[in-house]
Amino acid sequence: WNEYNLSGSGFNKDGRPPESYADLCKAVYTALKKDNPSTFVWGLVTAGVDRNFIRRVFEAGGGEYMDGVDIHHYSLKQAPERGGIITDIADLKAIMKEYKIEDKPIYISENGYASVGTDGYADEHQQACYSVRLRVLNDAYDLSDRYAFYTMNNGGIQKAYTTLCPNVYEK
After folding, report:
1. DSSP letters along 52-72, please?
2. Is this model's pTM higher than 0.90 or not?
């Protein structure tokens, strides 16, 4: 479930609490592993590093029912170094350690800068620069094991970018 932490959104229209998501993780994980024990299951998939939501999911036992932690992190109009990603991921890792699941990989599955929208969005040159800087930050600070740039033009990744900048990066 995508961005379940956004209460009232398309994926959590009823505004169910994080504990409900933990129950969902348990049911889905158990069913998937029963049919295919080698299936890798990502959990959370939060919009940002929602510390309260994540703590409550882990407190309810949800961390046991995911093989890795997945988040979406956007800095929107801020440069990567000022967008909070370093602090946010450090906090996520601290929470994971608190609940003894720090050995699970982290995937930042949505990350990037929009080129379409109101004034102030990144132009194509800024996108290219920011994308490289995000990758450098990821490696320098060991932020995640895997991350993806997402819709670099709000309508899908343009073909030219896919050859210059692979969509998914893994260490």
Report:
1. HHHHHHHHTTGGGG-SEEEEE
2. no
